[in-house]
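Working notes for the structural subgroup meeting. M.R. asked for a predicted model of this chain before we commit to crystallization trials. I am recording the input and output together here so anyone reviewing the notebook later can reproduce the run.

Input as submitted:
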Amino acid sequence: MSPFKGQTGLKRILNAASYSLDGLRAAFLGEAAFRQLVLLNLVLIPSAFVLDVSRGERALMVAVCLLALIVELLNSAIEAAIDRISLERHPLSKNAKDMGSAAQFVALGMIASVWAVILLG
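Returned structure, recorded in C-alpha cell form:
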C-alpha cells in the first residue's frame, strides 16, 4: 500500500483538489503548448456560445476543446515522467513522447473537424 494513499473522506478530496490545481499551475507555467491551448480555448469556447448552433452542437464544440486540454496535460505528464527516468536518448522514450504528441495532434484535428462539420453543415 502506498504511503500517499492514507487519506480518506473530505481530507482526500481536498488533497486531490490541491494536487490538481498544482498540476494545472505547473502545466500553465512550464508548458508553452498548454498555454497556447488555453488561449485557443479562451477564443473558441465563448465563440461556441455566440454562434447559432443547437445545444448539442455547442456541447460538442466545447467538449472537443476541453478534450485537447486533457490530452495536453497527459502528454506533458508522459514527457515529464520520461525525462525523470532519464534524459538519455532512447528509442522507447522517443516512442512514448512521439505517441503523446500524436495524441495531441489527433485531438487538435478533432477540434478542427467537429467545428468544421458543425459550422459548414
